[in-house]
Amino acid sequence: MVQKAKILLVDDRPENLLALEAILSALDQTLVRASSGEEALKALLTDDFAVILLDVQMPGMDGFETAAHIKRRERTRDIPIIFLTAINHGPHHTFRGYAAGAVDYISKPFDPWVLRAKVSVFVELYMKNCQLREQAALLRLQLEGGTGGKAPAAGESKEPAGLLAELSARLAAVEEQAEALSKQLDDESADAAAVATAAHLERKLTGLRRALDALEPGAGSTSSVPSQN
Prior knowledge:
The protein is of the alpha/beta class and about 230 residues long. It has a domain at about 5-120: Rossmann fold. The chain is about 55% helix and about 10% strand. It has helices spanning about 15-25, 35-45, 65-70, 90-100, 110-145, 160-185, 190-215; strands at about 5-10, 30-35, 50-55, 80-85, 105. It has a 5-stranded parallel β-sheet with strand order 2-1-3-4-5, sandwiched between helices. Strand 4 (about 80-85), helix 4 and strand 5 form a beta-alpha-beta unit. This is Response regulator. It comes from Streptomyces justiciae.
């Protein structure tokens, strides 16, 4: 069963949160509400999110201040933030949003389809990164020369070659999905931040593939396995 990604919706007006939920429900992911910047920061302490939709105009801690706190935390600094605002004070206001760490800045009223499409890109990137981390964890187990201290289940192969083949097959599936996503981003002229994130994912996949190839019989010593940047 594939775990759903979490999307954080931050707005002080309940009707706006309800509208966002209606728009994003088609993505079939987990939508988490926060009615203030403080509540959003609290949710980010315990849960991982694929993307944050953050209202700019809120009483107390506004969107800019909330984003600044998010970007200062090591745990949350890389989560994409999409600012939503009902006002537009011109280029300076928009620049302030990007300076605060937003990957996009959308003025209300917005096109529901466009918002849903933008959010879906970051959800896909998040899921691919999760898959990549799983493959990296399996690779680490192989490099450590065992099964993480667990005894193999009945019928499970103890041979390194069997584990390498399984790792290679799983990685190939992620590589195929990442390639399709990159092509989709190119076709749709997506945001620069989304393209950059996809490129970073592809670089990590390339490094992991090289590491696996280095472990193949006859490939030489595993000490030459490239690092993951």
